[in-house]
Write a structure and sequence with these properties.
With about 450 residues, this protein is mainly alpha-helical. The protein has one domain. It is built from 19 helices and two strands.
C-alpha cells in the first residue's frame, strides 16, 4: 500500500500533461514498430528494425515519408497497421482513450481533459465531451464520404474489394494529412483526374484546418453561431491565401518544366494539388525531384508553415505565420500590440509564436547538419552540392510532417533515418511541447535588474 502511494505521488508529480502527450505518441510509435517488425507485416521476409521504426514514426506522426514501398514491401496486415497508426496518430491517442472511457462509463482525469482541450480548442469550453464526440463523428463522416468518392473512381479499374481498399486507405491517409499511398508513384498516375484530385485536396484541407474550425463553420451554416471566432477567421483566410499563392507560384514556375505540354486543366489541377499537399500531406502528382529551384523554395516555405492548430498536420501552423505577419505590420504602424479585426492578440501568445518559429528553425538547422555530416559522400564538395538542397528539403518535410521527398528517403543510411525519425517526432508534438515535457512546467518567478542591448 505504501509503495502504491509512493508511485501514485511520483507519477502525479512528474507526469505533467505535456509529458503524457509526448509519451503517448512515443508509446504508440514503439507499439507500431514492434508490430511492423514482425514477419507477417512484410510481404517477404521481414523489415529491418530501423525501417519498421521509421515507418511507424512516419505513420503516427502523419508524415508520409517512407523508407520502404508501402504497397509492395508491406503485407496487407502491415498496411492495415499503418492505417491504424496514422488514424490514431492524427487524432491523438488521448482522444481515443477519452471516447473509450466515456463509452465504458468511466470518468476522465483532469490531465486527460487538459491535454485534449489544448489539442483541439483555442479556449476551454464547457461542452468538452460534445466536442470530442463531434471530432470522432466528423472524422468518420468525412473519411466515409471521401472513401465513397474515391471508390467510384477506383471501381473503374480495380475489382470491387481492391477498389474499396485503395479508396479507404487513401481517404484516411489524406484526411489525417499523412500522405501514405499504396501506389508506388503516389498519385502521379491520376494527375489529370478531376475527381481524385479534388477529393484528395478537400480531405487534406478539412483535416488540416482543425476540428474546432470545422465545428464553428458547420454551426455557422446551421445558424447556431452568429459570428466566427477570430481563430477560425485567421485560419480560413490564411489557408485560402496560402493555397492560392502556392498554386500561382507553382503554375508559373513549372509551366516550362514539369507542366510543359500539359493541358490547362492538368496544369491547374497539378498546381492546386501541390499547393495543398505541400503544407501538410505527402501526396504528389508530379516528380518532386524534377522541380525547379524556385518551386522547391516555395514548397519549403509552405512545409515550414504547415497546417492549422488542432488539426492532424504539423509545421509551425498557419496561425503562427499569420501572427508573425501581423506583428510585423503592427510594428511598422507603430503599434505596440498586435491588433486585428478590433481585437488584440495576447502578448504571451505573440511571445510563444516567436519562440515556436525560432525553436523550429534551430531544430531544422541541427537535423540538417546531422544529415550532411553523416552523408558519407566522398570526392569534391562541388560534385555533391546538389545533396544539400535534398537534405534541407527532407528535413523541412519531416518537420512539417509533410512527407514529400526529392527521392532521397530510401537512400538514407541508418544514422540519417534516426535523425529524420527524431525530426518527425519533434514536428508532430512541437518543439516547445517537447521542451516543456523535458523540463518542469513550473514558472520560475525570478526577475533580475534590467540592462539594455543593441538590436536591429
Amino acid at each position: 500500500m505504501k509503495l502504491y502511494l509512493m508511485l501514485k505521488t511520483f507519477f502525479s508529480r512528474h507526469l505533467l500533461p505535456t509529458r503524457i502527450f509526448v509519451l503517448s505518441f512515443a508509446a504508440l510509435i514503439m507499439l507500431g514498430t514492434l508490430s511492423l517488425w514482425l514477419p507477417f507485416s512484410a510481404s517477404h521476409g521481414g523489415l529491418r528494425f530501423v525501417d519498421a521504426l521509421f515507418t511507424s514514426a512516419s505513420a503516427v506522426c502523419v508524415t508520409g515519408l517512407a523508407s520502404v514501398d508501402i504497397g509492395k514491401d508491406l503485407s496487407v496486415i502491415g498496411q492495415l497497421i499503418t492505417l491504424v497508426l496514422f488514424q490514431v496518430g492524427g487524432l491523438g491517442i488521448i482522444t481515443f482513450s477519452i471516447v473509450l472511457f466515456t463509452l465504458m462509463g468511466r470518468g476522465i482525469s483532469f490531465k486527460g481533459r487538459e491535454i485534449t482541450q489544448s489539442a483541439f480548442l483555442h479556449t476551454p469550453r464547457k461542452d468538452f465531451y460534445i466536442i470530442v464526440k463531434k471530432v470522432l463523428r466528423y472524422t468518420l463522416i468525412i473519411e466515409g464520404v471521401g472513401t465513397l468518392l474515391l471508390f467510384l473512381r477506383f471501381i473503374q479499374e480495380f475489382p470491387a474489394g481492391q477498389a474499396f481498399y485503395h479508396a479507404l486507405y487513401n481517404a484516411v491517409s489524406a484526411f489525417n494529412n499523412c500522405g501514405y499511398s499504396l501506389f508506388p508513384d503516389s498519385m502521379m498516375r491520376y494527375q489529370s483526374d478531376v475527381l481524385i484530385n479534388v477529393t484528395i485536396m478537400l480531405l487534406i484541407i478539412l483535416g488540416g484546418i482543425g476540428f474546432i474550425v470545422q465545428q464553428e463553420v458547420v454551426a455557422k451554416f446551421r445558424g447556431a453561431e452568429k459570428k466566427l471566432s477570430l481563430h477560425t477567421r485567421i485560419v480560413l483566410i490564411t489557408t485560402l491565401a496560402l493555397i492560392l499563392v502556392g498554386a500561382a507560384c507553382f503554375y508559373f514556375m513549372e509551366m516550362h518544366n514539369t507542366l510543359r505540354g500539359a493541358t490547362t486543366k492538368t496544369a491547374l489541377l497539378s498546381s492546386f494539388f501541390q499547393s495543398v499537399v505541400s503544407r501538410t500531406a505527402g501526396f504528389n502528382t508530379v516528380d518532386i525531384g524534377a522541380l525547379t529551384n524556385s518551386t522547391i523554395l516555395v514548397i519549403i516555405i509552405l512545409m515550414f508553415i504547415g497546417a492549422s492548430p488542432g488539426s492532424t498536420g504539423g509545421g509551425v501552423k498557419t496561425t503562427s505565420f499569420a501572427i508573425l505577419l501581423l506583428l510585423i505590420v503592427n510594428r511598422m504602424k507603430g503599434n505596440e500590440n498586435v491588433n486585428i479585426a478590433n481585437r488584440t492578440i495576447p502578448p504571451e501568445l505573440v511571445d510563444r509564436t516567436i519562440s515556436i518559429i525560432f525553436a523550429s528553425a534551430i531544430i531544422i538547422g541541427v537535423i540538417t547538419a546531422v544529415l550532411l555530416f553523416f552523408s558519407g559522400t566522398s570526392g569534391s564538395p562541388l560534385a555533391s552540392r546538389y545533396q544539400f538542397i535534398e537534405y534541407v528539403f527532407e528535413t523541412f518535410s519531416a518537420f512539417g510532417t509533410v512527407g514529400l521527398s526529392m527521392n532521397l528517403t530510401p537512400k538514407l543510411n541508418d544514422t540519417q533515418k534516426y535523425a529524420i525519425i527524431l525530426m518527425m517526432f519533434i514536428g508532430r508534438v512541437g518543439p516547445l511541447t517537447l521542451a516543456f515535457a523535458w523540463y518542469s512546467a513550473r514558472k520560475k518567478g525570478i526577475t533580475y535588474a534590467e540592462e539594455s542591448v543593441m538590436v536591429g
